[in-house]
Amino acid sequence: MDALKVEEKALMASKHSSPLLSDIMDRTWETGTFWYTLALSSPSGLFTIFQRHIRPLFCKDNLEEFHLIMPFLWGKNVGRIAYQKVSDKKEYDRKLEQEFKDDDEILA
Q: CA-to-CA distance for 63 and 67, rounded, in angstroms?
């Protein structure tokens, strides 16, 4: 990986291009994205990849009630994301209602 980074930095000195492959590879290892990609490319190994590499990112213990945490496998901060989505929807509804009230006042 270090050799790849050295080569990419040398190339970057001569021209500007897209994100460095080494940065993308590092990020996929850090976040666990690599395992998702591998699981998708290997249906026969999907269960093993999931049990050994993906599930431990979210749940280190072998829980009997694992299905209760399944929604949290969509992302590491799914609770925060869901809360933000609900908040955004409430704000959207509030603004939309205000727009219709403003239109009613103009027509009256």
A: 9
Question: Cα–Cα–Cα angle for 44, 45, 46, nearest 5°?
Answer: 95
User: Which residue do the tokens 């409430």 mark?
Assistant: 90
**Euclidean distance between CA atoms 99 and 106, whole angstroms:** 11
Sequence-ordered list of residues with C-beta below 8 angstroms from that of 76, at least 6 positions apart, any chain:
57, 58
Name residues whose C-beta falls within 8 Å of residue 8's C-beta, 6 or more positions apart in sequence.
20, 21, 22
Q: Could you list the pLDDT tens digit for every one of the 108 residues in the chain?
A: 788 778 777 766 566 667 777 888 888 888 877 777 777 787 777 778 777 777 777 777 766 667 677 777 667 778 888 899 999 999 999 999 998 887 667 766
